[in-house]
Design goal:
The complex is a heterotrimer of chains A (217), B (540) and C (109).
Chain A (H helix, E strand, L loop, with lengths): L15 H36 L1 H9 L3 H26 L3 H32 L15 H37 L9 H26 L5
Helix pairs in contact in A: 1-2, 1-5, 1-6, 2-5, 3-4, 3-6, 4-5, 5-6
Chain B lengths: L1 H5 L14 H5 L4 H29 L10 H37 L7 H23 L13 H5 L4 H28 L12 H33 L12 H35 L6 H14 L15 H29 L8 H24 L1 H7 L3 H31 L5 H28 L13 H31 L41 H6 L1
Helix pairs in contact in B: 3-4, 3-5, 3-16, 4-5, 4-7, 4-9, 4-14, 5-7, 7-8, 8-9, 8-10, 9-10, 9-11, 9-12, 9-14, 10-11, 11-12, 12-14, 12-15, 14-15, 15-16
Chain C lengths: L7 H22 L6 H21 L7 H27 L19
Classes of the chains: A mainly alpha (217), B mainly alpha (540), C mainly alpha (109).
């Protein structure tokens, strides 16, 4: 080893390219596992929607499409700021990176706040929380309840992923202030970006499956 | 002069580079993590084995000789959960995979060493939850956690056990991820895909299953936990749910999980058969691709566990046909191993005895699997001892024989010591005999109609049950012998030298035990795997 | 390291398209298209997801291996959905069973 090893290079790797490709591949593979994780939920959802179509329709009609659309827009916005943040990191622009990280964190927190504080709270007051206070007068009550089981569980697991994402971004922000990133060392930001966009994609599918299927009422 | 100063004459290796409990618990060295796994899977194997012994003792008498029926239920559940999730699934990948993947690709470590250590801790935390479930009174759902038994009716510690399995799943996912990235990105110069040892192809295929299957089990167990906690009707038919959906999601992982157990063993056998026949493998690319084919097809067959569950018969037809398809890549492997033996200079050292045992027992297990994959015969054999015998031929006769074979093969590399070969051959023989005596009668019992998971049975089944229990005691002795001589060899075994078997492969080109950085300098690979007999051919 | 730097303009264009598609799918959902509603909604969702993957996640500029990983994950998801639904979708094909001895199936001798 005559060449000088970069401080950003972990000892098991030969060079920065190898390290970068390894972490990208690792992240993509991890996202593949996440697809299968949510995939189990999507499979369950599809089965029951097929079996109990009217109930799922009626359940979906009880959700507020406007809030759902607003949240979708917020999340897409956060994906944009995240992508711009990664771009700033690759170029070594620390101030810009910090700005975009803060923006992404704020957008993410707003999303979670609306999701839990407004929507879940509202659903709870409407007696739509299965296993806690579910009370629905009308046909297909069991199927509507099943819809809300999936609604709460899917959005809950998604919100949990958001919280994890926000925490990761907070750590990255702290690392940015400590001057840990530079044009040679931005892997963590890039990986966090991939994760963030993935969580966005899950929502892109949850939005129509939960909010829109009953919107024609 | 300068070169000799660099040469590793000091005898520093990964075992004595650092001392103290901290140096083990905080290590990121893949070889040390492999040994951590070795210790922990052995611990779980002994617990799971003890449960099996109690079950077999109980079944000596038709009315049950030992346990309360409820205790018996907990015993087989514990045996299943621990053996499947805490021994078989981590066994070869986490012990031998961890030790060998970086060495076989000529790398210093796995791609993500800290993640690797984290996997072990995750595994241990999952294990603690499961042990808690056992100590706090046990679980009686079987290892399958079928609903609505697990969600509504079972009173045991289902949550703790399910949580344990859930957590351990992440250990498996992270290990698989690490292997895939390492095999893709860390190969030494010249080590092309078709020069990789077949063990790596097998581990790669296994990792695919771990990565893509395990998350589905995780979410399924979460749904069970949700239903149990909030009494909502995801799987409960009384509340509008469908219990068969649980079976779909469960077997989407748990059928491929069988291949998580058997594929690494197949990889080990490919290494052993070539080394002890002194021949290159017959049909390298067929053996390599059959591993990947098995990994893919294994995801298409899960419905054959559900032929009598109320699943649509049309889906059953498709699943049955696809199940037969798995036989093709499996048979390719068996035929290629036997073709490799043909006209080889075969020597019957202990690892080879295990490999040969594997080939025979796996063939038996695989062929009886076809009985169960056929819709009509499965209706007769479903949930009988025939199923038990079938999957023990695969998981014990196959996966465990491969594990022991691999352990005997690479033990000198791991520890730098030789074990007594005579005792090792003797124990291989004892295990083979004990295994067949235990499980062959169970085929007959199942064919005659004895259902699985029952604490009592009609008197006419006693002879076969006593045979099976007798075999189990022989098997137990067979497993204890290696435990003794392996531990003995650590202290008293003669030094092994870098390559006691005259084997090919990068891991044999470095001292035993290897130095922490595995290789003095990055190795360059210039020949294909298993180039046995190359030099002799050139001399002539 | 060869990092691909994308012009900011590209990101903004993609973002505008995503917002547009969100508005579109929200609007279409209010029209009753029968069974086509879910098809349209999922198609639009797939377009949006592809945009995010290709541009925000840089898959467009990533190596072939990353494409393989992505395709593999979708393939396995398809296996899970297709084979599970194959059971549920074909269950109604089997006529409901009748008690033993009351079958009206006539065998030719």
């Amino acid at each position: 080893m005559s060449e000088v090893r970069s401080a950003a290079l972990a000892e098991q790797f030969e060079d920065l390219d190898q390290q970068h490709e390894a972490s990208s591949l690792g992240m993509w593979v991890f996202l593949a596992t996440e697809i299968m994780f949510f995939g189990g939920l999507f499979a369950g959802y599809s089965v029951y929607r097929g079996l109990y179509f009217p109930g799922f329709d009626a359940g979906s009609a009880l959700l507020n499409v406007k809030v759902g659309a607003l949240n979708t827009a917020l999340l897409l916005c956060s994906s944009l700021t995240m992508a711009l943040g990664v771009r700033a990191a690759t170029l070594g622009k620390r101030r810009e990176l910090a700005t975009f990280l803060v923006l992404t964190i704020l957008l993410g927190l707003t999303f979670v706040g609306i999701k839990l504080g407004v929507e879940w709270h509202h659903d709870y007051l409407e007696h739509l929380a299965p296993g806690i206070n579910f009370a629905y007068e009308g046909p297909n009550a069991r199927a509507v309840e099943l819809f809300f089981v999936f609604y709460f569980f899917m959005t809950g697991v998604h919100a949990l992923h958001m919280v994890v994402g926000v925490s990761i971004l907070a750590v990255l922000l702290w690392m940015t202030f400590r001057g840990r990133f530079g044009p040679e060392r931005y892997n963590p930001v890039e990986m966090a970006g991939l994760y963030w966009h993935f969580v966005d994609i899950i929502w892109i599918f949850l939005y129509p499956l939960l909010y829109l299927i009953g919107a024609h009422h | 002069m300068s070169t000799t100063a660099v040469a590793p004459t000091t005898g520093v290796n990964y075992l004595n580079a650092q001392y103290g409990i901290r140096s083990w618990l905080l290590t990121t060295d893949h070889k040390r993590i492999a040994l951590l796994y070795l210790g922990s899977v052995t611990f779980f194997f002994l617990i799971g084995g003890a449960a099996a012994v109690l079950m077999r003792l109980h079944l000596i008498e038709p009315q049950g000789a030992l346990l309360e029926p409820a205790t018996y239920n907990k015993m087989f559940s514990m045996h299943g959960i621990i053996m499947v999730f805490f021994f078989l699934i981590p066994s070869i990948p986490a012990v031998m995979g961890n030790f060998l993947v970086p060495m076989m690709v000529g790398a210093r470590d796995l791609a993500f060493p800290r993640l690797n250590l984290l996997s072990w801790y995750v595994y241990i935390v999952g294990g603690l939850f499961t042990l808690y479930a056992v100590v706090a009174g046990g679980v009686d759902t079987g290892w399958t956690f079928y609903t609505p038994l697990s969600t509504t009716y079972a009173n045991g510690n289902v949550m703790a056990a399910a949580l344990g399995v859930f957590i351990t799943g992440f250990s498996s996912i992270l290990t698989g991820l690490n292997f895939v990235v390492t095999i893709h990105k860390m190969r030494a110069p010249g080590l092309t895909w078709f020069r990789l040892p077949l063990f790596l192809w097998a581990i790669y295929a296994t990792s695919i299953i771990m990565i893509l299957g395990t998350p589905v089990l995780a979410i399924t167990l979460l749904l069970v936990a949700l239903e149990r906690t909030f009494h909502v009707g995801i799987f409960d038919p009384a509340l509008g749910g469908d219990p068969i959906l649980f079976q779909h999601l469960f077997w989407f992982y748990s059928h491929p999980a069988v291949y998580i157990m058997i594929l690494p063993s197949m990889g080990v056998v490919s290494e052993l058969v070539t080394c002890f026949s002194r021949k290159r493998i017959f049909g390298y690319s067929f053996v390599a691709f059959s591993s990947v084919a098995i990994a893919v097809i294994s995801f298409l067959v899960w419905g054959h566990h559900m032929f009598v569950s109320g699943q649509s018969v049309y889906a059953g037809l498709v699943f049955s046909a696809l199940s037969f398809a798995v036989a093709i890549p499996s048979a390719i492997k068996v035929f290629n191993w036997t073709a490799t033996l043909y006209k080889g200079s075969v020597s019957y050292q202990a690892p080879m005895l295990y490999a040969l045992g594997f080939i025979g027992l796996f063939t038996m297990g695989g062929l009886t699997g076809l009985f169960l994959a056929s819709l009509a015969t499965d209706i007769h054999l479903h949930d009988t001892y025939f199923v038990i015998a079938h999957f023990h031929y695969i998981m014990v006769g196959g996966a465990l024989m491969g594990y022991l074979g691999g352990l005997h093969f690479w033990w000198p590399k791991m520890t730098g010591r030789l074990y007594p070969d005579g005792w090792a051959r003797f124990s291989a023989l004892v295990i083979f005999i004990g295994f067949n005596l235990t499980f062959f009668p169970q085929y007959i019992l199942g064919y005659l109609g004895m259902p699985r998971r029952y604490a009592v049975y009609p008197e006419e089944f006693q002879v076969l049950n006593v045979m099976s229990s007798a075999g189990a005691s022989i098997l137990a002795v067979g497993y204890l012998i290696p435990l003794v001589y392996f531990i003995w060899s650590i202290r008293y075994g003669p030094p092994a030298g870098p390559n006691p078997w005259g084997a090919k492969g990068l891991e044999w080109e470095t001292p035993s035990p290897p130095p922490t950085e595995n290789f003095e300098e990055v190795p360059v690979v210039e020949e294909e795997a298993y180039a046995y007999g190359e030099k002799e051919a050139h001399v002539v | 390291m060869a990092a691909h730097v994308v012009a900011k303009k590209t990101y903004f264009t993609v973002f505008a398209t995503l917002i547009g598609l969100t508005a579109l799918t929200t609007y279409v959902a209010t029209i009753d298209l029968g069974p086509l509603n879910i098809v349209v909604a999922l198609l639009i969702a797939m377009c949006k997801a592809s945009l995010v993957v290709l541009f925000f996640m840089h898959l467009r500029w990533s190596s072939r291996l990353m494409h393989v990983v992505g395709v593999a994950a979708l393939f396995w998801l398809a296996i899970l959905l297709a084979l599970t639904l194959s059971d549920y979708r074909t269950r109604p094909w089997t006529p409901a069973g009748k008690p033993w001895g009351t079958s009206n199936i006539q065998f030719n001798r």
